[in-house]
Amino acid sequence: MKLPAVLSTIGWQAAYRLAAALLAALILGLITGRMALCFAIVLGMYAFFQNWNLSRLERWLRLRRVQPPPDISGPWGEVVAIVSRIYRRKQYHRSRVTELLREFRRLTSAMPEGAVLLGPEHEILWFNGRAGEWLGLRRKRDFGIRIANLVRHPDFVEYLQTGTPASGVVVHEPAASGGRWFSFHIVRSDTGVRQLLIVRDVSREQQLESMRKDFVANASHELRSPLTVISGYLDALADDEKLDATWSSPVLEMRRQAERMGTIINDLLELSKLESGDTPKDDQPVDIAGLLALLRKEVLQSEHRPEHVNLKLDSDALLLGSESELHSIFSNLVSNAVKYTPENGEIEMRWWTDEDGGHLSVRDTGVGIAREHIPRLTERFYRVDPGRARSMGGSGLGLAIVKHALQRHGGSLRIKSREGVGSTFTCDFPRERILSRDSKATAVS
Ligand code: ADP
Questions:
Q1: Residue 5: its pLDDT value, please?
Q2: Of ligand 1's atoms, which has the minimum distance to the CA of residue 422?
Q3: Cβ 383 under 6 angstroms from ligand 1
């Protein structure tokens, strides 16, 4: 029933009652001949009755938590019924919200992840037991304190401020019992007022990852010495004129395979080195134009190469980075372009800068790559055509090295390719790493 309709019912009920009282006063007045007195008595009784009901209602409203509704008939009874209904509905919603909150607390305390609710200024509003244990937070004491004052790792603080990377950050917390690795990920709502910080203990994953890296680095390192000895003997055998002719072809093949193994081991070691830190330690302004000119010269000296090897320099800006790592990035891209482009084809290397930063592309008119392979090219040992790649002497690690080295320079790799038409590999570097040649210290705008 709609509220205005109820009100009008109450209004009519009150009007009927008043009319009945007035009628009774009129009849009594006519019978007794004392009209004024009868009206005064009846209206007085009516007013007293209204007042009495009003005070019962008021008393019940104050004590409605503990007292049942009063048994009143007429319009006041309707008012009591409406208030009771509203009160019961409110109580039902309140108990539902309380139960939901209890359930939420039970679930969050059983969660394997830590959860911290942050306010607009990143102040702590609430956290579950796991987050408290891992981050050393205490209820009451730390409520209202900005989380950056308690978790001070620079990577975490930067993530909190910038929200990048979107996938969150992994940081090492030496304070957490025995030193643990935690991943932090912020979940924002549409309104953006409050944020939920999800904390995961990734110490085990980090341990396994570092074991994997150490294993690959150690195994590659251990394999290098015996391989050097084997290659040495194979070289000597290949050069030995007294070697039986039937052996010359197998020895040559063994030499080729030993060379391939050497390439793979060197690439694995390089990849391990790139994975061991986040940023290059030997940052310096690198002359990209000079580096590309040198690479072009090397390509021109190689025996099997495409007919046209062009260099397009649209900028003479320098790039802040590790010269050896940048050389490794570009030489891997250029050697791939040479490997996968026929001799009548063309390669173009281009370096330019714009408001987004610096860009280097290596374009070729070679065999190209089918669309489904492109997202997987930077995986270790991923090859589009394993037979062809192996016969070209590739280790399958070149683009993985490119990706890692680029990441360490804050850059990324874009790949565009069409099968049978050619490919373009573009490296994008952030603005902060671009230096104008005159100043060597001013970012190019
Ligand atoms: P590889 O040492 O085998 O070349 P990479 O990691 O450098 O390993 O490249 C991975 C795969 O990507 C290659 O096996 C090849 O199939 C493909 N690829 C890379 N560059 C090119 C290119 N310029 N044109 C065509 N295919 C390419």
A1: 56
A2: 24
A3: yes
Q: Is it the case that residue 393 has pLDDT exceeding 80?
A: no
Q: Whose CA is nearest to atom 3 of ligand 1?
A: 396
- Confidence class of residue 204 from pLDDT cuts 50, 70 and 90? very high
Amino acid in position 182: F
Q: Where are the domains of the chain?
A: 108-201, 206-275, 284-444
Cα 156-162-163 angle, rounded to 5 deg: 75
- How far does residue 383's CA lie from ligand 1's centre (Å)? 6
Ligand 1 centroid to 433 CA: how many Å? Answer: 27
Q: Take atom 13 of ligand 1 and give the residue whose Cα is closest.
A: 383
Q: Domain 206-275 carries which CATH code?
A: 1.10.287
For a pocket test of ligand 1, which of 381, 399, 416, 423 has the largest count of ligand atoms closer than 8 A to its C-beta?
399
Helix ranges (H only) for 201-244 are 203-239
**Residue range 6-23: average pLDDT?**
81
**In Å, what is the CA distance from 329 to each residue of 356, 361, 363?**
20, 11, 14
Indicate whether 441 pLDDT > 50: no
Q: Which numeric CATH code is attached to 284-444?
A: 3.30.565.10
- What pLDDT, on a 0 to 100 scale, did the predictor assign at position 177? 66
Q: What is the CATH number of domain 108-201?
A: 3.30.450.20
Least confident among 46-60, 284-298, 311-325: 46-60
- Assess whether the C-beta atom of 369 lies below 6 angstroms from ligand 1: yes
Band of pLDDT at residue 443, cut at 50, 70 and 90: very low
Give residues with Cβ within 8 angstroms of 260, minimum separation 6: 390, 393, 395
How many Å apart are CA 28 and CA 121, to the nearest integer?
76
- Closest protein CA for atom 2 of ligand 1: 394
Residue of the CA atom closest to atom 8 of ligand 1: 396
For ligand 1, say whether the CB of 384 is within 6 Å of any of its atoms.
yes
> What is the distance between the alpha carbons of residues 43 and 68, in angstroms, rounded to a whole number?
30
Task: Name which of 29-33, 98-102, 191-195 the model is least confident about.
Answer: 191-195
